[in-house]
Design a protein that fits this description.
alpha+beta; L-amino peptidase D-ALA esterase/amidase; nine-stranded mixed β-sheet; 33% helix; Ubiquitin-like (UB roll)
Length: 412
């Protein structure tokens, strides 16, 4: 089976695929003078699939979107995203507010009922500012565009404590000559430990994809990207990952994942989702370094993932990383309580390329060299459990003084 050719599209985002328009505007929802409302529209009805937070406290937009996706997964036309208020823990009124702004999108753009979805991010307990949003929707609709600049404005509009917008896009060319594009944007900096942070992600494509295939593809991709990141171990009330496919590239529809076109879709979605996920961690609140944790030799892939995520969420590991301290004991300790099969006599650990622990005891390694390796913007930790063939890779960041400051002052 010939592999597809995947080409990054420099500076592009959610409008890279054909038939998509977007914009981000400032309408005073929380942030003075900066974009805080994003609108994304497909020229035609598209297939939609979503993964939502496993937190039992779910934001109103999730309670609004879920039933729409259950009965109209092939008829979605638009997405509205607001920053500044999470609209979580706002009761029935919060869900009704979602309906009000979604209907405003549909009426303004002349779309069918229940074809617009809603996402929110911001402070939990703060409701939507509906009148401002309705006014903003009219403004946004008048400025929609298919350009990279419009996509960038949308990516900026969904930011909260993020320090930069996160977007990515690729073109996927198949051996038969057909091609399609995939674009994406994401936001997240704190409260990041997705299990489908506040993490929001949107993937768009102009491929034609059956609803059940798109959902299976999204699950596969999430398990290898957004489900492999952690900033602080907190799973948000608002976590949402949405995929939208409008078929405007032409070519045969993708009706099976286990097919050349299905495999190309998976590879293309991964090529967008993984850089976005890494950017979320790289931009973690107060983060000074991106940390990649590889675990191999686990009993199976599930055990490897659990072991890696336990290390990724350890506050002691993350604070040591902030200080570039090659404290192997904290990593070994985290692996030990990860509730995965582990034999200390078989465990081998590396910081960068330096082996620091093997077969139950620490090694005599160059601590200065290890410190220098850890004192970089990107750091790698490798662990071989020596038990089987299970592997996993996850991404995290360090905990700095700034993380505490940002979250201590978040509402004040």
């Amino acid at each position: 089976m010939n592999s597809p050719t995947i080409t990054p599209l420099e500076g592009a985002g959610i409008t890279a695929p054909q038939g998509w328009q977007a914009i981000g505007i400032a309408c005073g929802l929380r942030y003075s003078g900066r974009p805080d409302l994003a609108l994304l529209v497909s020229d035609v009805a598209c297939t939609a699939a979503a993964l939502f937070t496993t937190n039992k406290i779910k934001a109103a937009h999730i309670l609004y979107d879920q039933p729409i996706l259950m009965h109209n997964a092939a008829g979605i036309r638009a997405l509205l995203v607001n920053a500044g208020s999470a609209n979580a823990c706002t009761g029935d009124a919060g869900v009704q507010d979602c309906a009000t702004v979604a209907q405003a999108v549909e009426q303004t753009l002349g779309l069918p009922a229940q074809s617009a979805l809603v996402m929110s991010t911001g402070v939990i307990g703060v409701p939507l500012r509906v009148p401002r949003m309705v006014t903003g929707i009219a403004t946004a609709a008048a400025h929609l565009g298919p350009t990279p600049a419009a996509a960038l404005l949308a990516a900026r509009a969904i930011m909260t404590t993020d320090t930069y917008p996160k977007q990515y896009a690729v073109q996927v060319r198949l051996a038969d000559g057909h091609s399609f594009s995939i674009g994406g944007m994401a936001k997240g900096s704190g409260m990041i430990h997705p299990d489908m942070a506040t993490m929001l992600g949107v993937l768009t494509t102009d491929a034609a994809v059956a609803p059940e295939v798109l959902h299976a593809a999204l699950r596969y991709v999430a398990d290898r990207s957004f489900h492999c990141i952690s900033v602080d171990g907190d799973t948000s009330t608002n976590d949402t990952l949405l995929a939208l496919a409008n078929g405007q590239a032409g070519g045969p529809p993708i009706t099976e994942l286990d097919s050349p076109r299905g495999h190309a879709l998976l590879q293309g979605m991964l090529a967008v989702a993984q850089p976005l996920a890494r950017d979320v961690v790289r931009d973690g609140e107060g983060a000074t370094r991106l940390v990649t944790i590889h675990v191999r030799g686990a009993a199976d892939d599930t055990a490897a993932h659990q072991a890696a995520m336990t290390v990724a969420t350890s506050a002691l590991v993350k604070t040591a990383l902030f200080g570039a301290d090659p404290n192997w004991g904290r990593v070994v300790c985290a692996l030990g309580y990860s509730n995965t099969p582990l034999d200390p006599q078989r465990l081998v650990l590396w910081f960068g390329g330096i082996k620091v622990f093997a077969h139950g005891v620490p090694l005599d390694f160059d601590e200065r060299a290890a410190h220098q390796l850890l004192d970089q913007a990107e750091v790698v930790i490798d662990a071989d459990l020596g038990l089987g063939t299970g592997t996993a890779t996850v991404w995290t960041c360090d905990f700095s003084y700034q993380y505490v400051k940002i979250n201590a002052e978040y509402r004040t």
